[in-house]
């Protein structure tokens, strides 16, 4: 028969139970709350706090990829009952701010919004210079991937007016005449462009217009041809266009030396006469009729250099053995025999070699 142990006094049993309850309700006895509760998709900002007395507030922050639902609370408070206030889920997946489109902008009701949950749709309106393509939706939707749906080009560029033809020139359209496009102008050969060389379709006061006025092609003209001594132009004109030519002729008794014609060309978009001007040189012939008539029986002979307007005493040095004849008002020589020289003949202090026929 086993020995019997004495039982604990009733007072000691009650004391142990009381101590256990005191440990369980220690925070309540001290007037504080436990660690804040867990909230889906969010974390409390404890800032190194280890105790949470009554009336203390803890704010939560959404995890990456989630944002706060507008209008919902994001904090809890330690109540007098030493319990935290209730907090429902307030973080949700969302898309970033909708993209800025070249041809459209967000409508005003969405421009200040920063919460775009999955499935949310935003609407756009066309920018100035663009017109609506009603066959395509003007909206984007936030997808499950937290990405916006791909935008279609639901606004098209407006078109500038069709440029008129350029008289004596060409208008070059590279691609089209829509907003942002550029056209160029060139003139035909012989014409000069007056005005802009190109023009761009731009936006002005919500309308699309050409940036520069339509230019003109003006004909390039040369100035009046230069004059030459002892000669002139065969046929004069009122104006001298690019490509035209003039022909020079000499006065009676002069011969043309050089090219007889010059042409109107272009240099630096200006008219310019080409080539070197010809010259009119006096023909190697008898003296004029006045001298010939005065000295009907005397003849001037010449060598490589022409003898003209020399003193009369020099003319008297040459005596003819045959008379001089006239044909149609012009002097004419018969074949000469050896002329008789009264004394040596000098021209510009140099001996003259007579040319015999």
Automatic annotation (TrEMBL):
Record-level GO BP terms: complement activation, classical pathway; innate immune response
Keywords: Complement pathway, Disulfide bond, Glycoprotein, Immunity, Innate immunity, Membrane, Repeat, Signal, Sushi
InterPro entries attached to this UniProt entry: Compl-Cell_Adhes-Reg, Sushi/SCR/CCP_sf, Sushi_SCR_CCP_dom
Domain Sushi per the UniProt entry, residue ranges: 31-93, 94-157, 158-219, 220-282
Signal peptide: 1-31
Location within or outside the cell: Membrane
UniProt entry tagged with the keyword Methyltransferase: no
Gene Ontology CC terms, in alphabetical order: membrane
Family statement drawn from the similarity comment of this UniProt entry: Belongs to the receptors of complement activation (RCA) family.
Function in brief: This protein recognizes C4b and C3b fragments that condense with cell-surface hydroxyl or amino groups when nascent C4b and C3b are locally generated during C4 and c3 activation. Interaction of daf with cell-associated C4b and C3b polypeptides interferes with their ability to catalyze the conversion of C2 and factor B to enzymatically active C2a and Bb and thereby prevents the formation of C4b2a and C3bBb, the amplification convertases of the complement cascade.
PANTHER family, A to Z: COMPLEMENT COMPONENT-RELATED SUSHI DOMAIN-CONTAINING, COMPLEMENT DECAY-ACCELERATING FACTOR
Protein name per Swiss-Prot or TrEMBL: CD55 molecule (Cromer blood group)
Source organism: Sarcophilus harrisii (Tasmanian devil)
